[in-house]
Design brief:
The structure holds two protein chains of two kinds.
Chain A lengths: L1 E4 H17 L3 H13 L3 H20 L9 E9 L2 E4 L3 H15 L23 E7 L4 E8 L1 H4 L3 E5 L4 H16 L7 E9 L1 H11 L11 H15 L14 E11 L4 E8 L6 E4 L1
Parallel strand pairs in A: 1-3, 2-4, 7-8
Antiparallel strand pairs in A: 2-5, 5-10, 6-9, 7-9
Helix pairs in contact in A: 1-4, 2-3, 6-8
Chain B lengths: L1 E6 L3 H6 L5 E10 L2 H12 L12 E3 L27 H6 L4 E4 L5 H10 L2 E4 L5 H5 L2 E8 L8 E15 L6 H9 L3
Classes of the chains: A alpha/beta, B alpha/beta.
Chain lengths: 280, 183
């Protein structure tokens, strides 16, 4: 058995909130760079150049990449041989978010009640997803999620007969309808299968995957590539101002499902696809 | 076409800007997003006057991240404009000439833009750090209790935007997409 103190968890989560909002991961920087070279629209190229300059200002001056520093989505993968000492794990996660958003001058974008809408003023609560796994490690992923793209995300409960073509059309519909609102170039996270909530969670998790990592299922890998090609043919382009780079990548996750269903969730993310992982 | 435009904007500039023009704005703009729009609507419904002058002025749909010590403002990029569509035609009819945001607008907003010879600009979404450098002063002038959603008066210099919907109703989001479709 391994003991991990909640104080350590608070410190890590706080640092990860700040890091995620100021620096994009290397894979995202790389696709940005490639996109500038391949974009055919002059205005689109100009937008991409602005976004690259924005990333360097954010890193150098420590100004958040985007003012929407998101609602903090936290994935916890907890080894079943870990004992959490010093209080509630859940409270430690919220405290880490509270501390990170305060000390990092990040925007407080969470309201306490969806109808009454009073700001909680500390960006809590976080949205937390737990997974219990074998072993004695604690893996934390912090993925602050902006709502320009979140608002354009969709779930489709397709029929089995709709098949792979139905999945394709669902993804293209979500991206086409989102257009400029989701701050393209986007990253497209897709969940296929499971139940209503399982496919939504897979779509969210797909966004935290390295953009260069492809599905291990050959036909899904092919679908990811076909969809990326077709999305970039929609003409939406950087900022939605027309162009040939509408998405940086399509990440698809799948799960077994019911004989009667084919759930498809499309979680869109803007070009500021933020996620930081640490293993304690 | 690349243009330098002063804001508050002249009627002539607002009328003559064309969808696709790349514009550097200099002057004063006001921020307002969801909560401030709701409150302005309620103020008008009570027959009271708004905390900002709309005539010839512009609203930037933006809620900044907090400013660090020694900085004028935090990250300051546009939010999605369509959430303000419900409130916008009334503000345009009261004299609002410029809107800066990102994303599509409703047919009602487009009609009100044409009716009032106004202009809708997009700033680049997700470029909040870069855009913060074009803001030379920031002051909360109303609805302080709304935090990031308070109305800020901003002085901007060479603030980069693109005309998306012009006073004739031309819409860059529609035309540009067709140009690059299937390439």
């Amino acid at each position: 058995m391994r003991i991990i103190d909640t104080g350590e968890i608070i410190k890590h989560i706080s640092e990860m909130c700040i890091e995620a909002n100021h620096f994009l991961s290397e894979d995202m920087k790389e696709v940005f760079h490639k996109a500038v070279a391949s974009e055919k629209s002059p205005l689109g190229k100009q937008v991409l150049n602005q976004l690259e300059e924005n990333l360097s200002i954010a890193g150098n001056d420590k100004i958040p990449i985007c003012q929407d520093t998101g609602m903090a989505v936290v994935f916890i993968s907890l080894g079943q041989e870990v004992y959490i000492k010093g209080g509630s794990l859940e409270e430690a996660i919220h405290e880490g978010v509270r501390k990170g958003y305060r000390e990092g001058y990040l925007r407080k974008s969470v309201v306490k009640d969806p109808i009454d809408r009073q700001n909680t003023n500390d960006n809590t609560p976080a949205v937390i997803h737990y997974e219990i796994v074998p072993g004695e490690e604690l893996k934390i992923t912090v993925a602050p999620k902006g709502f320009g793209s979140e608002n354009m995300s969709r779930i489709f409960m397709l029929k089995p007969a709709d098949g792979i073509e139905g999945v394709k059309q669902a993804v293209l519909t979500a991206v086409r309808d989102a257009g400029p609102n989701a701050c393209p170039p986007m990253v497209v996270g897709v969940g296929v299968g499971g139940t209503f909530e399982k496919c939504a969670l897979m779509a969210k998790k797909a966004l935290t995957r390295d953009i260069n990592e492809k599905s291990k299922v050959p036909y899904i890998h092919q679908l990811e590539e076909e969809l990326l090609y077709e999305i970039n043919g929609l003409g939406i382009g950087p900022g939605g101002l027309g162009g040939t780079v509408t998405a940086f990548g399509v990440n698809i996750e799948t799960y077994p499902t019911h004989i009667a269903g084919l759930p498809v969730a499309v979680n869109l993310c803007c070009h500021v696809n933020r996620h930081v992982s640490r293993t304690i | 076409m690349v243009r330098q435009i002063q804001i508050p904007i002249s009627d002539e500039d607002a009328r003559l800007l064309r969808s696709g023009d790349y514009v550097y704005l200099t002057g004063t703009i006001f921020t307002a997003r969801d909560a401030a729009h709701k409150r302005m609507e309620e103020t008008l419904n009570r027959g009271e006057s708004l905390p900002i002058e709309l005539a010839k002025n512009g609203i930037y749909y933006m809620g900044p991240s907090p400013a660090k010590e020694g900085f004028i403002i935090g990250s300051a990029g546009p939010t999605t404009s369509s959430r303000m569509d419900k409130y916008t035609p009334r503000l345009l009819d009261l004299g609002l000439k410029v809107m800066i945001g990102k994303g599509k607008r409703s047919p009602e907003v487009v009609e009100a833009i044409i009716r009032n010879e106004a202009v809708y600009f997009a700033a680049v979404g997700g470029a909040g750090a870069l855009l913060s450098k074009k803001i030379i002063s920031s002051e909360v002038i109303a609805y302080d209790d709304l935090g990031t959603e308070a109305i800020h008066k901003l002085e901007v210099k060479d603030f980069p935007v693109v005309v998306v919907i012009d006073s004739k109703g031309n819409n860059l989001y529609e035309t540009a997409v067709l140009e690059y479709k299937g390439i």
